[in-house]
Amino acid sequence: MRATDVLIVDDDAELRAFFVTSLTLEGYQVAAAANGADALAYLRRWGPVAVILLDLSMPVMDGWTFCRQQQSDERFAEIPVILSSASLDTPDRPRPIVAALEKPIDFREVLSVIRTYCPERKSCAARSSSRRP
To answer: Which among 17, 51, 108, 118 could bridge 124 via Cys, Cβ 3.0 to 4.6 Å?
Structure first.
């Protein structure tokens, strides 16, 4: 199995399922987490992904806290992050935030940004095949 292309991080189970299904149908290898803590646990266990779609407002660990933790770990600091939130008051976008999309999100817009960082759907992560997808 190939490595994960996209990590969806959102506390809304229906929205997570929608993105997992839709991106899988587009040919991406997708994983999901319900909050920032689960996302960090995934990254620490399975390694970097090609791009992260991240909600800001979540229980346990919100998106901003996740970004700070991500930046503090050199293994994950360069992973592009697409923010998704109902409220996008982001005066200073820390690196590696590459886009901020306001909910409700247009899937075509998400797909367009993902394709920027993961253009080859069949193998964009190009990492070890021994890890979980």
So the answer is: 118
Considering the domain boundaries, does residue 123 fall inside one? Answer: no
Distance CA(23)–CA(14), nearest Å, equals 14
How far apart are the C-alpha atoms of 8 and 112, rounded to whole Å?
15
Q: For residue 30, which of 3, 48, 55 has the smallest C-alpha distance?
A: 3
Residue with tokens 């407002």: 57
Report angle CA 45, 47, 48 to the nearest 5 degrees. 145
pLDDT in tens, 78-111: 889 888 876 655 555 555 677 777 788 888 888 9
Question: What CA–CA distance (Å, rounded) separates 109 from 101?
Answer: 8
Q: Has residue 81 been placed in a domain?
A: yes
Host domain of residue 104:
6-117
Structural domain contains residue 66: yes
